Amino acid sequence: MEDYNISRGKHFYTIGLSYKKADAEIRGHFSLDETGKKNLLEQARNEGIDGLLVTSTCNRTEIYGFAQHPFQLIKLLCEHTHGTVEEFEKVAYVYKNKDAISHMFRVGTGLDSQILGDFEIISQLKLAFYQSKEAGVANPFFERLVNAVIQASKRIKNETEISSGATSVSFASVQYILRNFQNPADQNILLFGTGKIGRNTCENLVKHTRNNHITLINRTKDKAEKVAGKFNLTVKDYADLQAEIRQADILIVATGAQHPTITKDLIYNKKDLLILDLSIPKNVSNEVQELPGVSVIHLDHLSQITDETLERRKAAIPHAQKIIAEAETEFNSWLETRKFAPTIKALKKKLRAMKDAEVDFQRKKISDFNDQQAEILGDRIIQKIMNQFANHLKGDSNSTDESLELIQKVFQLEQPVKR
């Protein structure tokens, strides 16, 4: 990427791990909360990285960034998580330059999601870009790329069947309940955690189970009350968690904490209890599974649930891939223009200097010289010349470097400084 005049970093990389090779436990080791992401971005800026974006979801943790070598980014990730380089190397992937760009398109448009058609990642990409911008590590390349991915995602949602129905982890949890309980409307359901996944799960529970026995608990009670208010549900204090678990038939955990929030000593069940853990890292301690009458299902299992709508979505993949290819081609065309942007800018500056010198010369020679008309005429000629050069460079990518060298030589332009 060093020829594109977009970053001091030599190459553009994606480094990360996802559900495809890393199980929930390993993904938990590399999970980043909001503080972790902020600290990572600040360190990146302090180390001179001028373009970096980081996402951490239940299905993946990824860093997109410019660097001399991918280890710079791997080191950043390991320093701000509980993961090690050795763990990372066993399950990770590294993409470079155009392959890294292609990967972001696939991720951001839902084609690489654990549940096909889950578009929640696009809002997380938007947030990641905003956070990078706040930290001062979002260059124009990232702004253009993220916007291109957003537009491709919108087209796929509007023009294909790949997003028909609901295919998020939150919906999969509700689907599991519907398939495993004869009377889901009669079960006492406790939802612990009202972040984004918790809110989506709550909405799907109300919509699909017709259940009026749903209780919400969150460490910050007012957040739970805001969600409950929309659906007329019960809210309990965090201090009541153990008592509410004892009454529950189904416990859904979506707290997003970095350590287990549901441990063995919290559960004294007097009846069978199903626990659905929608969190990364796991928020239900492994020892809970040892308790009699308790079943623990993690999101990795939920994500394997398929139905007829998923088959319909799979049929839409070729159309989605075509949309991605068009968006990617358009982005790469813009990227190619970055190669010659400094030369074009220098040429325009040189032509304007030549025009100003000639106008000044003619002003001294010609009486009643019309400065305004001369400026208009000179600027129009310069613009036409610039358009000719730009069109030539855009249309002849095979010899762009030779053309740039010739322009610089003929017009005696200063060599563009590499960032």
UniProtKB/TrEMBL annotation:
SUPFAM superfamilies in the record: Glutamyl tRNA-reductase catalytic, N-terminal domain, Glutamyl tRNA-reductase dimerization domain, NAD(P)-binding Rossmann-fold domains
Active site, renumbered: C58 (nucleophile)
Domain Tetrapyrrole biosynthesis glutamyl-tRNA reductase dimerisation: 320-413
Annotated site residues (Important for activity) in this chain: H103
Keywords, in A-Z order: NADP, Oxidoreductase, Porphyrin biosynthesis
Record EC number: 1.2.1.70
Alphabetical list of PANTHER family matching this protein: GLUTAMYL-TRNA REDUCTASE
Protein name per UniProt: Glutamyl-tRNA reductase
